[in-house]
C-alpha cells in the first residue's frame, strides 16, 4: 500500500516540477507557461484556506515523492457547492506503478467523507491513460466538447468524467 499524506511547503519544488512537466510536454493541463514555486505556494495556501486537501503519494515515508492530487470547486456558483473537480499528477518516472489508482481512490474516499455529492474531472480527450484510469475507478464519461480549448496552436476536445459519491 502506498503512503498518502497532506502536502506541505516542503513539497512545493516537487509539485512545481511535475506540473511544469505536464504544462510543457502534455495536454493534461491547458496552460503553456510554466508556473513558479511562489505561484504553487499561493495555490497551496488557497486550497488550505478553502478547506480542500492536497495529497502527496509515495511508496513509504522514506521514499521519494511520486505524485500529488487535489480537488476544489467545480464551478463558483452556489448550486455547485456539493460538486468538486479533481486533478492528479504522477511524476513521469513513477507512472504505471499504481500510484494514480491509489491516489484517485483516496480522493474519492476523502470527498465522500466531506459529503460532496459528485466528483468531476475535465480531461483532454487525447489523454488515454487518464481516461482509462477514471473508467477503471468507476467514472462515467459524459459527452465530449469538441475544440473546447487550445494548446500549442491546436484546438483540443474536452471530456468530463464524473462519479456520484453519495448513494
Ligand atoms: C494519468 C495518470 C494520473 C495515471 O497514473 P499512473 O500512476 O501512471 O497510473 P496507474 O499505474 O495507477 O494505473 C491505473 C490504471 O490507469 C490506466 N493507465 C495508466 N497508464 C496508462 C497508459 N499509459 N495507457 C493506458 N491506460 C493507462 C490503466 O487502466 C491502469 O490500470 P491497470 O494497471 O490495471 O491496467 C498519470 O499517468 C499522470 O499523472 N499523467 C500525467 C498527468 C495527467 O494526465 N493527469 C491527469 C489529468 S486529468
TrEMBL record:
Enzyme class, broadest EC rank = transferase
> What PROSITE patterns has UniProt attached to this entry?
GNAT (PS51186)
The N-acetyltransferase domain is annotated at 2-166
Q: Which UniProt keywords apply?
A: Acyltransferase, Transferase
Question: Which Pfam families does the UniProt record give?
Answer: Acetyltransf_1 (PF00583)
Q: Which GO terms describe its molecular function?
A: acyltransferase activity, transferring groups other than amino-acyl groups
What InterPro entries does the record point to?
Acyl_CoA_acyltransferase (IPR016181), GNAT_dom (IPR000182)
Q: Tell me which EC number(s) this protein carries.
A: 2.3.1.-
Q: What is this protein called?
A: L-methionine sulfoximine/L-methionine sulfone acetyltransferase
Question: Which source organism?
Answer: Entomobacter blattae
